[in-house]
Amino acid sequence: MKLIRFRHGNEIHAGVLMARGVVAITEINARLGTNIPNNLLAIIQQNAASQLTGIDELAAIPLTEIVPLVPYEMPPKIWCIGLNYRSHADDIQAVQPEEPGSFMKPASSMFQPEGEIVLPPVEVSNDVDAEGELGVIIGRTCGFVPAENVKDVIFGYTTTLDLTALDVLRKNPRYLTRAKSIDTFFSFGPVVVTADEIHDVDSLEVITEHNDSICSRDFVSNMRARPFELVRFHSDFMTLHPGDLISTGCPKGARIRAGDRVRARIDGIGTLGATVRQGIREPKF
């Protein structure tokens, strides 16, 4: 099942993405007498996706009439993994860590799918890359998850775009969080694919497109720490909650400049794109 959050007219809905369009949760509740939350994060938290059955004949909104949005505005946690592909480490002349090189990002760094990446003022950073990645969404509260049970705690998968101010990072690797947390340096979605749809996660190919060409592509099977292991590993250090997101790393980032277009693409999951413009120093208070 493919789930999406979207704007239709002046209203925001959650819905099920189908070939003929999107079936809104409000339509499902009205026609089938269900009480499914019209909120994608709540659907994950309440394990309500299992109720989304018998909808094949319900009215769908054409895709041309909706605006896709991030699945939810405030993920409980956003974890990202650095240097998980050898090609990415080689690109920025870094050494792959023996354990997952994980770091967190704030929700304030997010932008909407097909929206704008606003580059920071050049005196803040003048060397930014964008990385298309596979995102793993946690489906239940869990900790110390045995390897054989990891599949049971994953709700689904999505596409992500993770950005880095490389010149900030080069000053000191301890600045990783700062280099990753600038406004419009992260997005995910717009589609969330439930785990039952993906029979072999390792066979997925993660692609980053830059303008009219492919910047990088590689298979999940070539990650140093693959998705199931990332979930198991992080569950040893903290309780994971429904809606937590783990962005699993990129084969190689695309150096971006104002006027560029960048896109993450994973066949079977979806695409997530953005345009790039230069920002300016504009006080806000």
Distance between the termini: 43 Å
Low-pLDDT residue spans: none
Oligomer: single chain
Number of helices: 6
Count of β-strands: 17
Global Rg: 19 Å
In percent, how much strand structure appears in the residues? 35-45%
Q: How would you characterize this protein structure?
A:
By secondary structure, the protein is an alpha+beta fold. It is 14% helix and 35% strand. The chain is built from 6 helices and 17 strands. It has helices spanning 25-32, 40-45, 86-91, 166-171, 176-180, 227-235; strands at residues 2-8, 11-18, 21-24, 67-69, 78-82, 101-104, 115-119, 128-138, 154-165, 186-188, 191-194, 205-210, 213-219, 245-247, 254-256, 261-266, 270-278. Strands 1, 2, 3, 4, 5, 6, 8, 9, 10, 11, 14 and 15 form a 12-stranded mixed β-sheet that branches. The chain has a 5-stranded mixed β-sheet with strand order 7-17-16-12-13, with no helix packed on it. A hairpin with a 2-residue loop joins β2 and β3. The longest helix is centred in the C-terminal third of the chain and has 9 residues, at 227-235. The chain starts with a strand and ends in a 7-residue tail after the last strand. The model has no long low-confidence stretch (mean pLDDT 94).
